Amino acid sequence: MIATSSIKTHVSVVMSVYNDAGRIERAVTSILRQSHADLELIVVDDGSRDGSGALLDRMAAADTRLRVIHQENSGLTRALIRGCSEAKSEFIARQDSDDWSHPARIADQLALIQGDNRVGFVSCPTQYVGPRGEPLLVVSRTTDPAEATRRLRNCREGPPAHGSVLFRRALYERVGGYREEFYFAQDADLWLRMAEHAWIGYLPIVRYAFVREIESTSGAQRPIQRKFGEIGQLCREARERGGSELPFLQEAARLSATIGASRTPGAADLERSRADAAYSIGSQLALNGDRRAIRYLLKTIGLYPRHWKAWIRLAQAFLTGRRKTESVMGVD
Known about the structure:
Layout: E1 11-17, H1 24-32, E2 39-46, H2 52-62, E3 66-71, H3 76-86, E4 91-94, E5 100-101, H4 105-114, E6 119-123, E7 126-129, E8 135-139, H5 145-155, E9 166-168, H6 169-174, H7 186-194, E10 199-202, E11 208-211, H8 222-240, H9 246-261, H10 267-287, H11 293-303, H12 308-328
Parallel strand pairs: 1-2, 1-4, 2-3, 6-10, 7-11
Antiparallel strand pairs: 4-9, 5-11, 6-9, 7-8
Helix pairs in contact: 7-8, 8-9, 10-11, 10-12, 11-12
């Protein structure tokens, strides 16, 4: 057992988990094995029913830096509010339960944020990967904090992944933290408010892996997710002109209540969202020249046969694979 009660906790990492038993161990381990070991990991088990809670309890018994909070399911935003309220450190970092962090992530982000008092929150280039760990693409941002902040505020260019961010606890509390009115886009709303008081900085190297999934219900709610993002922008504009955010926050609260009343998308919406997710993964793999694209493109067509883009990309994937095979065999 690793015991750290005798040292001052410097970073609190906050994670929410809901029915993620198959991936949570990798995410937790990636934090507990950070080169910066002076941390606590607060995991909010948001009413999981798949054994995630029991798995977390077993991991917590082996490392006292891991603290598990069990609660009834209330959604990501409220779980993060709970987790951040329990944080005891000067800095709070996020980590999502299906992603993982590079061992030097926390150390590198601390060095960046502590090196410039104008920087209040930091992120890093993020490697997007497929469900089986297939490399898709790296999403990165400018390393100039002033320019990065301008792009965040005016161009909707924020952190590549919610879980990739570390921020000053004082800044989080100053802007009011996550707002429960935002069932989705709670991160974008928070970053916009933080950017009004501090700069955002980015590391120059990949330190976070974001997993793209197919079997997810969130994709079926993408239109409403975009709506929450739009509301966050309207709130920003209201603040800039000295107006009231209240009408927009009330609209966000109404949308959140609607989702809470019926969180399960219809079967047709779910199939189409899975098809779109599979296509997105397959298309990027095809662009990378990776023949594993074929698996995902066939999955797309199986879920939604009229997905004409998948048919085109599948033909391209087969042709690319054939050319590569012929080239290997010495045929021009």
